[in-house]
Amino acid sequence: MAKEDSSTPTQQSPAGNLMEKIVALTKRRGFIFQSSEVYGGVNGAWDYGPMGVLLKRNVKDAWWRAMVHEREDIVGLDSAILMHPLVWKSSGHVDGFSDPMIDCKTCKKRFRSDDMDGAVCGLKPSKSPLACGGELTEPRNFNLMFETFLGPISDSSAKTFLRPETAQGIFANFANVISTTRVKVPFGIAQVGKSFRNEINPRNFTFRSREFEQMEMEFFCVPGTDDDWFKKWVEIRKRWYTDLGLSDGKLRLRDHDKLAHYSKATTDIEYLFPFGWGELEGIANRTDFDLRQHQRGIRTVGKWDGGDLSSVELAAEDAEYQKGKLSYFDDEKKQRYIPYVIEPAAGADRATLAFLCDAYAEDNAPDANGKVETRVVLRLHPRLAPIKAAILPLMRKDGHPERARKIYDDLKRRFFVDYDESAAIGKRYRRQDEIGTPLCITVDYDTITDGTVTVRDRDTMQQVRVSEDKLRDLIEEKIGL
Ligand code: GAP
Fold first, then answer.
1. For ligand 1, mutation pick of 192, 200, 212, 280 (most atoms within 8 Å of CB)
2. Residues 6 or more apart from 69 whose CB is under 8 A from it?
3. Fewest CB within a 10 Å sphere: which of 3, 66, 371, 444?
4. What pTM was computed for the model?
5. 451 CB-near residues (< 8 Å, 6+ apart)
6. What is the pLDDT of residues 434-478, one digit of tens each?
7. pLDDT tens digits for range 390-401
8. How far is CA 193 from CA 46, 59, 161, 422, 423, in A?
């Protein structure tokens, strides 16, 4: 039987720069790499490695399960990233999706004028652009949408954008969903997918990127019931994070006092990252703004000559707009109206980063020879952990690998599990601790004679002996399936 690691570890506060340690761990263990790293890297874009892709997928799956799978009133969608250019005119992104930007004429760098305190000037030694003495321009607006062209001709009629949010794909499909499913207001449409924003200052690792994934849901409700639904969704969404193990003490709600043009109320769910409080998700009461705007937009299509979008006038909102394609007919009340929308909009990359930061821990634990050393462990919720269990033969002989493989082959049909016979058992445990594997299953001499294995718990490091045929149930219980 594997004998090390049987005493309880004692938690310690990680010394040094916590964020640097987390970034180093995510690289060392194959969670996150900088995009195009071998070419010197690209700013604001990230690649998820073998562990990262599993973790992020588990985050997205947990969201999908809570928002679509377990709810009768929400359906899913996967809309295209490329959309009709007028979508972005109607939504307000062409005219208003911009950040104020300042150029430094001395070092030629660009900064967000509302984020100058955290910015770093391009000259060495690096200082704040407010302190380096460089000549700064007046702020001007910079549209964050990435432009592209549909087809081979790069003129204004072919110009469109990589979507800066997934939400507009949902609004554009409102009528399709109504006519093809049995949904009735109140109901929601949810989707997970890539969004793109040409951020002026991408920073804080994956927190502010130029390419990222969103998990958004538009919940359509009867006008007048929107305030109640807004409150409900703020509560539901905050609970989702704590149910998946995020520390309640590091989460807070922040009500906006300066509201976006489409919003009647917005509350952010923020997490205390090692670099400070940051938004994980915004819950907004978008009223009937979007459906009404698109109602105008779809009437503009025939009138648009393909010219510059910023000078396009959307069709007027005449008396007929209530009856348009994006309205809803209530069969029981025999009334037609434009629903109000509550939008919980979360970032998959930010949630993943928060779960990583929250899970990172160091403790004092004995190594294989009983010597106490610092152990790095990711205490991820078992449902989010990339690998649910590692199957480890104690020896590379005496039938251990064959028996361990048999267990692995059985468990892999149900869970994402790992087989590892590569190093000393203590080293293999430590590797699994660093990637957050909740259980390590060791096959040893007793397994060969009586069919039992040891199961080691990542957090307590305690080991119990169980029969091989109990392993499925044990893992299921741990994950909470
Ligand atoms: N449809 C509303 C909307 O897009 P948002 O607050 O701009 O609202 C929603 O974005 C979420 O998307 C944010 O709370 C954040 O988690 C994520 N997000 C936004 N910009 C991001 C960026 N540059 N990098 C990473 N995640 C981002």
1. 212
2. none
3. 371
4. 0.94
5. 467, 468, 469
6. 999 999 999 999 999 999 999 999 999 999 999 999 999 999 999
7. 999 999 999 999
8. 15, 13, 15, 37, 39
